[in-house]
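Data card: per-record layout.
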Amino acid sequence: CRSCWDLSSGINAEYGDLCEFENVVTAVRNGNIKLLNQTIEEHAPFFIRAGIYLILEKLKVITLRNLFKKIYLITSSFQMDVTNFKLALNWQGLEDVDLDETECILANMINDGFIKGYLSEAHKKMVVSKVTAFPALTDFL
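The structure for this 141-residue chain is written out next.
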């Protein structure tokens, strides 16, 4: 393992080698749910022993939020087809996610404050706020 995100030697000295978390950080930052799932699965025994497995499972929502934010930035639109989100989820290894489940994921994220907007089921679109479509995580966590 390389220097694990350039952590100071003090943190490494106190907590030991933290390389199990390197891909977790990368996955969450980049919205890479596939990498997060693989990393959690690969290091599950370590995460369970450390008592943080369930906490890491909760990072999936933030990772999905970051993935959806990338779609928003790429499309440069306040009205986005739900199909785009479904395709992104399928591309990230969640092949069994259909359009209805994608809408459900988006609706929950809107309800929980991860996304400011609403779903138009008739048009199969998500419409987001023109001001802050994806509020900073510090606003509600």
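Known properties of this structure: The two ends are 31 Å apart (CA to CA). Strands lie at 79-81, 117-120, 125-128.

See the next section for split statistics.
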